Amino acid sequence: MYYISPSQLISDSRYSFAVGLVRTLEGRLFNQQTVNRLLDAKDIHTLKRELGETEYQNLLSFSPDLQDFEVELSRGLKRTYELMASIAPDPEKINLLRLRYDFHNIKAGYKAKLQGETADAALSDLGLIDKGLLLKLIEEGSYEQLPLGLSQPVIAAVTKLGTAASGSSVDMTFDGVMYEFLYLKAARGTSLFLKILFQQYIDLTNLKSWLRVKKREGDKKLLLAALLDYGFIEKSRWLNLYESSAADLPARLAHTPYSKLISEGISRYQQQASLTALQRLIDNYMLGYMEAARLICMGPEPLIAYIWAKENEVKVLRTILVGKLNDLPLAAIKERLSAHA
After folding, report:
1. Is the pLDDT of residue 190 over 80?
2. How far apart are CA 84 and CA 304, in angstroms?
3. What's the whole-number average pLDDT of the chain?
4. Kindly report the CA angle at 58 between 332 and 42, in degrees rounded to 5?
5. Is the Cβ–Cβ distance between 29 and 16 less than 8 Å?
6. Residue 11 to residues 14, 17, 191, 295, Cα–Cα distance (Å)
């Protein structure tokens, strides 16, 4: 794992109040005891009563319907983002994370346009751009009018996709331009913590692209088109690994920060022929990176890590809710929770 020490970061006394508040809020995050109580709830009604002891008590007034829960969970996360931005001397560093949801909405809108469908149900309320405006610009193809600097990466993605776009290629292409865009924004904004965060996402996105291309038996040209710039692992190294098999990757990448993740991830990938388990490991890896922020006394990093923790908490709660609503066995719910440990 890539560890970042507090000495690598610039202490910013302007964040003293904000970090103090975050330390208080961290004490309200789910602990393992809370998660266990939610898991042990015999049905959705019992689970809702357990939530009465948490900040999610607003869910008590909703019918046992996942859509109602999703609306309230999204509202809660939006309140978290807005609170962190309001107390941060540099709110743009907080809002950088919200741009992920704008890219999600753009991707959903573009896929819906290709398929002649509506995207409303797939959109997130957590982005910075008005959803109605965003969908209008996508429908019209007016990508150059997208605000917040998103026009250039979106135009690049649409151009790269051409007329032969499929659902999976849209996901890969838009995710790729998103991570490159966020990395460059973080680098220009002098946030080492965020810069390294997005560099790691670029590396791990390249890992998944490498595996996808190998599975399809694509050539080096296809791999080169899929690889992203700005990772710690250079594109040339991924290309040099092309002749290797997936089983060779753990040994070939043993001296990278991802050695443990790759070793376990490739093992599961070979067993399941799916990237799902690898993605779970990536999510856990990123949570581990965020843990370093707890050692930082003054700066934006604790606020960023708190947002990450809240997003993970919502994923845990959503996983349990979906499991209870669908009467899944407890073992199956716990297996899905392993992605958010």
Report:
1. no
2. 8
3. 89
4. 35
5. no
6. 9, 13, 12, 12
The structure tokens 């809108």 sit at: 109
**Residue-wise pLDDT tens digits, 56-114:** 877 666 666 677 788 888 999 999 999 999 999 999 999 999 999 999 999 999 999 98
Angstrom distances, CA of residue 3 to CA of 7, 10, 255, 307: 12, 16, 14, 19
Tell me the C-alpha distance between 223 and 234, whole Å.
13
Instruction: Answer whether 213's CB lies under 8 Å from 226's CB.
Output: yes
- The enclosing H or E element of 164 equals none
* Tokens at 91, concatenated: 């709110």
Q: What are phi and psi of 211, to 5 degrees?
A: -65, -40
Q: Where are the alpha helices (DSSP H) in 163-300?
A: 167-188, 192-215, 220-226, 235-240, 249-252, 259-272, 276-291
**Residue 259: closest CA among 275, 281, 280:** 281
Return the structure tokens found at 17: 């109040």
Indicate the DSSP class of residue 228: P
For the chain, give the number of residues: 341
Torsion of CA 161, 93, 206, 113, to 10 degrees: -20
32-40 vs 44-51: helix crossing angle, rounded to 10: 150
